[in-house]
Amino acid sequence: xxxxxxxxxxxxxxxxxxxxxxxxxxxxxxxxxxxxxxxxxxxxxxxxxxxxxxxxxxxxxxxxxxxxxxxxxxxxxxxxxxxxxxxxxxxxxxxxxxxxxxxxxxxxxxxxxxxxxxxxxxxxxxxxxxxxxxxxxxxxxxxxxxxxxxxxxxxxxxxxxxxxxxxxxxxxxxxxxxxxxxxxxxxxxxxxxxxxxxxxxxxxxxxxxxxxxxxxxxxxxxxxxxxxxxxxxxxxxxxxxxxxxxxxxxxxxxxxxxxxxxxxxxxxxxxxxxxxxxxxxxxxxxxxxxxxxxxxxxxxxxxxxxxxxxxxxxxxxxxxx
Length: 321
Fold this sequence. Notes:
Layout: E1 7-10, H1 17-26, E2 28-31, H2 38-45, E3 51-55, H3 62-66, E4 73-77, H4 86-92, E5 95-97, H5 104-120, H6 122-130, E6 149-153, H7 157-167, E7 172-176, E8 187-188, H8 192-198, E9 201-204, H9 218-224, E10 229-232, H10 241-249, E11 255-258, H11 269-272, E12 277-279, H12 288-308, H13 316-319
Parallel strand pairs: 1-2, 1-3, 3-4, 4-5, 6-7, 6-9, 7-8, 9-10, 10-11, 11-12
Helix pairs in contact: 5-7, 8-9
């Protein structure tokens, strides 16, 4: 029997399992990753889909977009959009919704968790205790976080939330963006290199993509210096991971806290051997509250686009169409 429900192509299983069920309840959903032959499925059925759902981690490659000639809208779970093929989507004229705003607090919380862990050596001290080393020696003295200079690369929603957290630690905050943020109370520095020279701790909250690829390179890390710390809760591509591993190993920077990596889920092996870096498996938005809010916005974006032709939250380059 023919269905009157809109047909939705789901690129893969979503990070929140309830969202899979909620999408299937509201729409006629086909999950591409579950098809025995995804390429053949797209060739035979691609023209039936006007809507697609994916996540920031999965993205949507050009080959899939090109196989969906009637695609009008993509609802993506997450704030990153560098894995979505921008050129293919713009050629197709498809709009793209995402889930900003609802994860700012949790990402900022994790940025500070990594910051505190890196500066105070919490994960390293945990390993020290578990190995039984405490009975034989004292754990080394570390660096306090409060009162430090905090540099933020990317003063968007998440960067601004990190800056608010910093006030509770009596930190001085400065930032670098492509342009100054109107009304920001914090000092703007016109280059990332200047920000790194100024900061004791550099937190990355900038968007990923080719425009920011490897902007945190060996020169920036050298400017941060042997007493400096790096925290990345943005995208792994923003940091030259090999240069970072070398700077950590040679103690040209003091430490780092990373939630994201260039090749997830495979951090550079050199990082795994170092004690002065804290590694997390891309969990910044991984709380029940935030994932639920993100799922709700995925659904809301899809519902609103179908009803009005415009999602509640749209990626910047999509909205410019």
